[in-house]
């Protein structure tokens, strides 16, 4: 059973795909060549699904860090006889664009692992077990000068290795003793069929790829990261994590690089997040506006315009998520041969939410377009028509029931958050009307905006609960109502908003003060089992408190949530209320988005308070 704590993993990314490395030097997750491709290393989900470990033989302790301003990981193993450092990266290639805009453009599809003995001597062991197609395939392995040829199914990999590895049973294995100053470079290179064959690289070439990758991340960070408020390092790091979740070729952004890390240990709430949700990706663009001044905004809106392919109209709502190249059909299936992390099954690929009706997406997309309008240098006529169509759709869709932000697998309802986001869609479209050359639409958009607002105020407020609730007529609290002041639907100090914030802080939190998105008892969302507290929602609470001028409480809540970041600053989606362990897909864009936005709101609130 695979049971390494979720928090024990660190992220590597080349802006095409990602790898996760454990604290003990094992690459336990790697999908090639895209985020949503089948895994080659999948031990995260099953012991037999493949891994690549490099670690000392015998006892050790390990410490880790990302090299300054990068997503290049350094793990230092301390042993009784000496110290070994392993530096891991997905090579991103040179970042030569004058605005540092091209991070990942020249990625060679290569995982680089550089080992160096820092002092004393250390006996080190390498073991590689590639298992393509989520662990189904045991590849052919053969020796070639300088490494191994690894072939099976869709994968053709070359391992450059300075050690002679013994091959047996589709695994390769070796041990060596390193002394202070010794260095070894390894690289796993993937062939792109018919385009660029994989090859063996020399020790110098691999060291160069690593140096270029460090330099490219630093160049990107230097050019993009201007945030100077509180928690600067955490915000900058979150910006890099969000950048690492972008798919460079298309401009798509994934919600997380993993599938099926559970929201409750042993439960069925296991989903595939390796896709580009309109909602998550729009929020990511907005957070990058704070954390990293994205000049990728144009790419993202081009991706959205292309992926949605103009099919928005009376019969075609906007699809809520896409594959990283804009694919529409993300039909969900299970992988019964995988046991799942800590036996949490089923393991799913694809996502059944792909054809759900969720009307909040118009607001998230137009909200991001409004915030980033100045960064979208070329708003061509297709993009303008697309954004106008979104606002026109919101006019009609705001009256419909939907599955809501939480993608409930039960009956559609009139969710308060969905209506509020329709209000955002119309409000921001009105603000963009000149750029969209759509002044003639403003009267229709304004009338619909006022209608939906009036409905939320009337039907979304529950006087006996003393708060805005989950859907019209509901008595249940829902943390997404914290977004109402954040998007400017109502001022945070409006008595109804203050009452809602207080109700959520008092009644929708666990003993640690972390926020649940809603109560799951009784399967109200159409699913069995419980889940953890939701980090994004906890950051929303901090943000709403900051907006309401309660800066000290906001700071307290922020620090509580940010305190769950692991040793290398990464957050999963949720926290287990019983154990405090991170749960859910990892690292999760939502949580890092929440961290960035809450830090920004608190910095603004402190500034206002100081005036
Ligand atoms: O709660 C059930 C749903 O859980 C997942 O959705 C969550 O993740 C999405 C990606 O981050 C996010 O956009 C959504 O707001 C979250 O509720 C899952 O993807 C759904 O299929 C599932 O129904």
UniProtKB/TrEMBL annotation:
Q: Which residues form a coiled coil?
A: none
Q: Can you provide one Gene Ontology molecular function annotated for this UniProt record?
A: trehalase activity
Q: Where is the Trehalase-like N-terminal domain?
A: 4-162
- One Pfam annotation reads TREH_N
Indicate the segments forming the GH15-like domain, all copies: 242-600
**Taxonomic source organism:** Catellatospora methionotrophica
What's the protein name?
A: Trehalase
Membrane-traversing stretches = none
A biological process (GO) of this protein is:
trehalose catabolic process
């Amino acid at each position: 059973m695979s049971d390494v704590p979720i928090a024990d993993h660190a992220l590597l990314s080349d802006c095409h795909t990602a790898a996760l490395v454990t604290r003990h030097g094992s690459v336990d997750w790697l999908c090639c060549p895209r985020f949503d491709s089948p895994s080659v290393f999948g031990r995260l989900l099953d012991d037999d699904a493949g891994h690549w470990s490099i670690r000392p033989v015998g006892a050790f302790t390990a410490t880790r860090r990302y090299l300054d301003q990068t997503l290049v990981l350094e793990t230092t193993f301390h042993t009784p006889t000496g110290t070994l450092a392993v530096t891991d990266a997905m090579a991103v290639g040179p970042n030569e664009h004058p605005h540092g805009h091209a991070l990942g453009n020249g990625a060679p599809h290569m995982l680089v692992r550089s080992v160096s003995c820092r002092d004393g001597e250390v006996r080190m062991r390498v073991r590689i077990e590639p298992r393509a197609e989520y662990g189904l395939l045991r590849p052919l392995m053969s020796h070639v000068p300088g490494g191994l040829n690894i072939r099976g199914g869709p994968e053709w990999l070359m391992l450059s290795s300075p050690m002679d590895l013994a091959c047996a049973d589709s695994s390769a294995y070796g041990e060596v003793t390193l002394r202070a100053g010794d260095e070894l470079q390894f690289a796993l290179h993937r062939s792109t069929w018919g385009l660029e064959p994989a090859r063996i690289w020399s020790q110098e070439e691999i060291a160069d790829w690593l140096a270029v990758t460090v330099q490219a991340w630093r160049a990107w960070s230097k050019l993009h990261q201007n945030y100077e408020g509180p928690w600067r390092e955490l915000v900058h790091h979150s910006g890099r994590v969000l950048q690492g979740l972008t798919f460079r070729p298309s401009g798509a952004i994934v919600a997380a690089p993993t599938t099926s890390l559970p929201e409750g240990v042993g439960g069925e709430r296991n989903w595939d997040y390796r896709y580009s949700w309109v909602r998550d990706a729009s929020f990511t663009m907005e957070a990058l506006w704070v954390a990293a001044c994205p000049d990728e905004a144009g790419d993202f809106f081009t991706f959205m315009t292309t992926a949605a392919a103009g099919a928005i109209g009376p019969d075609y709502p906007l699809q809520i998520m896409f594959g990283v190249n804009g694919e529409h059909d993300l039909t969900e299936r299970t992988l019964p041969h995988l046991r799942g992390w800590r036996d949490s099954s089923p393991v799913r690929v694809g996502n059944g939410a792909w054809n759900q009706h969720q009307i909040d997406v118009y607001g998230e997309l137009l909200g991001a377009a409004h915030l980033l309008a100045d960064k979208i240098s070329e708003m061509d006529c297709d993009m303008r028509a697309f954004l106008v169509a979104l606002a026109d759709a919101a006019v009609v869709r705001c009256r419909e029931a939907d599955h809501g932000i939480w993608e409930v697998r039960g009956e559609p309802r009139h969710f308060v958050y969905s209506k509020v986001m329709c209000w955002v869609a119309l409000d921001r479209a009105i603000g963009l009307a000149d750029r969209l050359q759509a002044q003639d639409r403003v009267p229709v958009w304004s009338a619909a905006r006022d209608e939906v607002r009036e409905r939320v105020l009337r039907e979304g407020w529950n006087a006996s609960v003393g708060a805005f609730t989950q859907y019209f007529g509901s008595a249940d609290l829902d943390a997404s109502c914290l977004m109402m002041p954040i998007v400017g639907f109502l001022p945070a100090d409006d008595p109804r908003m203050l009452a809602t914030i207080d109700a959520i802080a008092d009644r929708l939190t666990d003993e640690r003060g972390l926020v649940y998105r809603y109560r799951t008892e009784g399967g109200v969302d159409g699913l069995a089992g419980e889940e953890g507290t939701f980090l994004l929602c906890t950051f929303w609470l901090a943000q709403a408190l900051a907006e309401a001028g309660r800066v000290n409480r906001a700071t307290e809540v922020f620090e509580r949530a940010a305190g769950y970041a692991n040793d290398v600053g990464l957050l999963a989606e949720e926290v287990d209320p019983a154990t405090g362990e991170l749960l859910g897909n990892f690292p999760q864009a939502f949580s890092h988005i929440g961290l960035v936005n809450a830090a920004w709101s608190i910095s603004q609130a402190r500034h206002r308070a100081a005036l």
